[in-house]
Design brief:
It is a multi-pass membrane protein. It holds the Pfam family MFS_1_like. Residues 2-348 form the Major facilitator superfamily associated domain. It is found in: Membrane. By secondary structure, the chain is of the alpha+beta class. The chain folds into two domains: 1-80 and 170-349, no CATH class; 84-163, no CATH class. The protein has helices spanning 2-6, 13-20, 24-51, 56-72, 171-202, 208-234, 241-259, 272-280, 283-317, 322-350; strands at residues 84-91, 111-120, 123-133, 136-142, 151-158. Strands 1-5-2-3-4 form a five-stranded antiparallel sheet, with no helix packed on it. Helix 2 (13-20) crosses helix 9.
Length: 351
């Protein structure tokens, strides 16, 4: 059920950052550093659980609450979504020219860099860079613009890659980065602990893949539902509040279900580090670690940047209902391919 709770929010984290104005380079850097933190936090929590075996359930429940809380606090991160501005009958024969040497002195709250499409008679000029004064939308200037027309209309979008002169020192940026980092670390640690608990509970009586498949079913369903409700309730201003509400409801159900979960007490090894050394001396373990590493590298491109690409493509082609489309993509991935492979994973493993 916890995986189900993460369906509405996990796929959207990178594009949430995009909508705050974070560039692909910065977002890629953050998501590249996070796996290093996973590498440190997973063994640390694993050791903690091994040492405090009688408190495994309390640690597990605490991580569920903490992870969901970190993601829920994104609600309070000030929005900085991409805006679009419309200008009518601009004097394009002599447009006001931005002073390039003053670009670094832009005000955080009163100016914005934009990329504009200008329509003049039958001609269209695309990708013209400029600056607008917020609150004075008839005041726009362009740089490197040479237009052969008199009067034109303009549609301008925030230039998210270059409009970051104040973002990276703002509360919005650091609150977002800290919350998604803590939440994602918690999610990855929980994945490892929940897998271990699942194996302890089912032992050899049931196929793990058939148990795990229910998580991916829930993930796909909630991702699809949240994509629809986010699109439905957003209107002109995108809001992730419906997705966060779905996450909290599923987390509450999961938490109360886990309270009743009976976790068997497993005898601790006499020497944890010796057991770890013996495990790493196993050739099959090394092969599995290599496979998991390579699979993670390949998967990261899809996990972190597929929706980013979809958002960019939708903006370019003026495609509506983007969030619903993203929900459908997750549903197709999970309710299609993943269900099949989780179900037969036990047979593949034994083969």
């Amino acid at each position: 059920m916890f995986v189900t709770a993460m369906g509405p929010i996990l796929p959207q984290l990178s594009v949430y950052g995009r909508e705050l104005g974070i560039s692909p380079v910065v977002m890629g850097t953050v998501t590249g550093i996070l796996p290093i933190l996973f590498l440190l936090s997973k063994p640390a929590f694993g050791l903690l659980v091994d040492v405090l075996r009688h408190y495994r359930k309390a640690i597990f429940l605490g991580l569920i609450l903490a992870t969901s809380l970190f993601y829920a606090l994104l609600y309070f991160v000030p929005s900085r979504f991409i805006s679009q501005y419309h200008f009518k009958k601009i004097q394009c024969s002599q447009p006001e020219t931005c002073k390039l040497d003053n670009l670094e002195d832009l005000s955080c709250n009163s100016t914005s860099r934009v990329t504009c499409d200008l329509k003049c008679n039958k001609d269209t000029f695309k990708g013209i860079s400029g600056i607008i004064q917020l609150g004075l939308q008839d005041n726009v200037c362009f740089y490197n613009a040479s237009l052969d027309c008199s009067v034109c209309d303009a549609i301008c979008d925030d230039d998210i890659e270059n409009n970051t002169h104040c973002l990276y020192t703002s509360f919005t940026f650091w609150a977002f980065i800290i919350l998604i980092s803590l939440g994602t670390i918690g999610f990855n640690v929980l994945n490892s602990i929940s897998d271990a608990i699942c194996f302890d509970v089912i032992e050899d009586e049931y196929d793990y893949g058939k148990q795990r498949v229910w998580g991916t079913i829930g993930f796909g369903i909630t991702a699809l539902i949240s994509g629809y409700v986010v699109q439905y309730f957003s209107g002109n201003q995108l809001t992730y509040t419906p997705a966060l509400i779905i996450m909290l409801i599923c987390t509450a159900i999961d938490f109360f279900a886990c309270i009743k979960l009976e976790i068997p007490i497993i005898q601790a090894p006499k020497n944890i580090f010796k057991s770890l050394k013996d495990l790493l001396n196993n050739c099959q373990t090394i092969v599995f670690i290599f496979y998991a590493t390579m699979a993670g590298i390949v998967d990261s491109f899809v996990v972190y940047f597929l929706f980013w690409y979809i958002e960019d493509f939708a903006l370019l082609t003026k495609t509506p209902n983007t969030k619903l489309l993203e929900g459908l993509i997750v549903a197709a991935q999970t309710l299609g391919a993943e269900i099949i492979f989780f179900y037969i994973s036990g047979k593949i493993w034994n083969f």
